[in-house]
Sequence to fold (450 residues):
Amino acid sequence: MVLKNASILVIDDDADVLTALRLLLKPLVKNVVTEKNPNNIIAQIEKTHYNIIILDMNFTAIVNTGNEGIFWLNKIQKLKPDTSVILMTAYADIDLAIRGLKEGASDFLMKPWKNEKIIETIKTILSQKTSNNKKQKTLNSNTVEIIGESDAMQDVFVKLKKVAPTDANVLILGENGTGKDLIARALHENSNRKDKPFIKVDVGALTSSLFESELFGYKKGAFTDAHEDREGRFEAANGGTLFLDEIGNITLGQQVRLLTVLQNRQVTPLGSNESIDIDIRLICATNVEPKTLADESKFRKDLIYRINTVDIIIPPLRRRGTDITELSRHFVSMYAEKYNKNPFTFDTGFISKLKKHDFPGNVRELQYVLERAVIMTDGNVLKTDDLVFSSIERSTTTKSIETTSLNLDDIEKNAILTVLEKHKGNVSKSAKELGITRAALYRRLEKYEL
Ligand SMILES: Nc1ncnc2c1ncn2[C@@H]1O[C@H](COP(=O)(O)OP(=O)(O)OP(=O)(O)O)[C@@H](O)[C@H]1O
Fold:
């Protein structure tokens, strides 16, 4: 979008600020409205669609919810998720502005501002809006709908589309409930094998004896309970895709058996002397940390190389920013339909409460929390009180994959994120704990686009 078509609302309780910004912007944009009283924000945004809102962070305390700027930012985002918010703040409140960015503001400006800086910031946001509109928020294929407009998921989509049509073996890494199964299916559905079988086996759950009979099949009489021939999963997947889930949990002995089949591209059912040629595309997934996979006492290197021609790392939900909003809309409308309820709206604070939770169980946990909320709520407004998080998730979920990546940039990025989270976005305290200056921390925040 270009500047001259933009509609902008400026909210500040200082009349001089409003006048200055009105005079600056009026000749440049389509519509500029100024508002002194934040209590009128809702009425203003319901009446007119604004592309950008410039919002002061420091009103005289009108509401008692921490900071007023953050409070109004959350309200605007809930009511008008397409409107971008630029925060205006004093230099002393930079930590607050960073918190605002984390909560979804597009940018912030320091008072006193430079006119060129404001115009440049507005132009950048408008041009990003144009490219964001072109962004594919959802990856759809035959049976799979994967929601993800965050940069992290957009990267996954790009990689997925690149690798799907090839026959390359793919290893999908991600915490529990991040969507590894969906990605595996999407790889199959976007491949040349899409009309052939997609067979999933949870190999981590198979006992030693079941591992072989399940994967390779058996002949009648091969063992006591083998009353008839049974086709193995490799054979069933012939021509299509075999998805081995929880691959990180198989024993070294099972790894050898698997490796032999993958090298020879043949399986021999138990009790048979004849090998069967197999033509499969192999996709594996695990929630085990890369460090464990790299530990040769637990996982064979030659098998890792064979299954991991390309890896796709799915980020945990807590690193996916705005995806929570899109996913919540998706699940709530899905469950409204399932339980024959009318469409729902969200109470103020509903989405921000979700955004504050760190979702150790990832998308699956979000899905359950919202299903429960839809079932339990009265009426058609989902309220913050309808959100009940399970304490079980916290104790059962494996540690974050990204915190254990051995890439130096990842390690640095994760250290910064962990410390920022610990200090609730306070840059001074975080820089101190990291042993670097504030300026050095800002440079890194910029570098890692945090
Ligand atoms: N991006 C997404 N968009 C829509 N639904 C999603 C997304 N990611 C996950 N889901 C849903 O969340 C649930 C869990 O996803 P899935 O089973 O693919 O995760 P997983 O990583 O394979 O889990 P596990 O490690 O436990 O096997 C499923 O119901 C899936 O449909």
